[in-house]
Amino acid sequence: MPGTARDRSSPPEPVWARQRGGRRPRLTREAIVAAAIEIADAEGLDAVSIRRVAAALGVRPMSLYTHIERKEDLFDLMFDEVNRELIIEGELPSDWREAITVIARREHEVILRHTWVIDLMARRPRVGPNGLRHGEQNLSALSGLDVDTATAARIVTAVDHYMTGYVVRERMLRDHQPVHLGEPYVQQMIAEGDFPHLRRAMREGVPQQESFEEGLRWLLDGIERALGDA
To answer: Count of CB atoms within 10 A of residue 208's CB?
Structure first.
C-alpha cells in the first residue's frame, strides 16, 4: 500500500534520529560502542563486526539489532564517540593560536589512540551530535579573528590535514620498520645515482621523527603571516 513503507531507495534515518529499542534493555548502545572501539583499538577497523562485538559482550548477535539496524550504524556511533573525546571542556583560550593549538593537541592525542578512525573517515561516516559540537568548537576558536566563515573553515581544514598526516606517519613508523638511509642497498643506490641532496642527508643524518608541536607552529606562523598580508 502506498505510504506504508519507507522508500528503500532513500538512505535510512541517522541512528541518532531513531528511538532506542527495548523497554528495559540489559544491553545498552553505549556498551556496544565501547566494545566495538576496544576491538578496533586492539585489532583495527576491519576486525569490528556485529558478531565479534556480540561475542565480546556475551550476547547473541541479534541482540545488537535492538539498538542498531546495520554495521554502518555502529561505525557512525564509533565515529561520534571519538568526536566526543575531541571536545575540550570549559573555555578555550581567547587567543586564536592558543585555542587552535589546544584543539590540535587533543586531536593528535585522541586520533593516535584510535588510529582506525582515519580508515573510518575514508568510508564517510555520518556526522552525529558530537561531530557537530567539535565543528562548532573549531570555528569558535577562530571567532576572535577578523575573517569570514569560509576563511576560518579553511584554517581549520589546514590544521586538520596537518594533524591527520602526522598521525598517519606516526602509525606507519609504529606499525612498520622504516627504511633507513643507512641500509646498505640504499647507500649503494644513493652513492651510484644522481641523488646529491640525499647524499648530503645521509652524511648529516635525518631524524626519523619530527616534532608535532614544531610543525604545528610553522603552519600557524604561515597562516598568521598570510592573514597579516591580506
So the answer is: 8
Q: How many CA atoms lie within 13 A of 230 on its CB side?
A: 11
- In contact, 67 and 29? CB cutoff 8 Å: yes
> What distance lies between CA 199 and its chain's CA centroid?
36
For 28-50, what is the mean pLDDT? 96
* Residue 55 contacts residue 127 (beta carbons within 8 Å): no
Residue ranges of alpha helices (H) inside the chain are 29-43, 50-57, 61-64, 71-86, 96-113, 116-121, 129-141, 149-175, 184-192, 196-204, 212-229
pTM of the model: 0.80
Which one, of 60, 39, 59, 58, lies nearest residue 48 by Cα?
A: 39
> Is residue 156 within 8 Å of 139, Cβ to Cβ?
yes
Report how far residue 32's alpha carbon sits from residue 127's, in angstroms, rounded to the nearest whole number: 19
Rounded distance between C-alpha atoms, residue 128 and residue 76, angstroms:
7
